[in-house]
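notes to self, project folder thing:

trying the whole complex as one job this time. last attempt i did each chain seperately and stitching them together was a nightmare. four parts in total, labels are on each line so i dont mix them up again. if this works i'll redo the older ones the same way
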Amino acid sequence: MRLSTKGRYGVRALLDVALNNEAGPVLLKDIAKRQDVSAQYLEHLISPLIRAGILRSQRGSRGGISLGRTPEEISLSQVVEILEGSVAPVECVDNPEVCSRSSTCVTRDIWVEMKAATLGVLGATTLKDLMIRHKRKARPGPGTYSI
Amino acid sequence: MRLSTKGRYGVRALLDVALNNEAGPVLLKDIAKRQDVSAQYLEHLISPLIRAGILRSQRGSRGGISLGRTPEEISLSQVVEILEGSVAPVECVDNPEVCSRSSTCVTRDIWVEMKAATLGVLGATTLKDLMIRHKRKARPGPGTYSI
DNA sequence: ATAATGTTGATAGCCTTAGTCTACAACCAT
DNA sequence: ATGGTTGTAGACTAAGGCTATCAACATTAT
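result (full assembly):
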């Protein structure tokens, strides 16, 4: 039940762009350096996010990566599904026809609930939320910091 | 984010035992036949469940597999964790020390929530629940059947 | 004893993941 | 226009995990 590095690095890369975007596009290689990922591998994560419109790219000198939408509009469920595919724990959840038992299978019902629970968490969290959480952790104001 | 066949087949095998246990131990090969899994592969799923006390085995002729506890006492979270390991989507959720960023990483907080959501579903479901659901689906009483 | 069962460890094929390499396309500054 | 800077795309590879299968073994009822 592990997320692959695509999902993990991808979300972190996205947050990195969001936090460093104000002064203009962010260089792919700077993201790579900050996030400890090879630039060449990072391209594979950035690319599908661009195709999906979540990121925007500018080639050439003075180029780089920026957000394609506002942070409020980017939920983690979108990101993870783009990079990892469906979060369904079993294929029959999305495609009942792959298994002849689907209609009567009670374990499938549980897997459906599992997917919904996962999507509940990821769908309720946006990039904006992560930015806020990040600021709280990085610069705790009086009374706002806990544990 | 897929469950491997171990978790899927394992839960189904367990339910199979629960439903067929009344007349005594269930033959491994019968489970295999009903669940469409090779008996040899099934052994590898059964074995850890026996070690964990969830199943009990009886060797020799007239032997077979039976439940090691009552169905109410067997939650799917136990089963899945035995067969698949932790349901944490990222290792740092269980072992923060594997990543130097753990204490400040906001994405980790999301992965923690994700694990909790998954465990919420699996922990709240017992083998008994599956048996009840199964009976409802298999023999709908008047008014109880839906869809 | 013997047949029926479960147990264990070794092994192998296959697929996915993670990552690199190379050539290319677009763009800005000058 | 040109050259350097940046992102794009796809082929390729190494490593590891998953999904089994096989064979030898241990235990038990009869």
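what i see at first glance: Chain A has seven helices and two strands.
need to look closer tmrw
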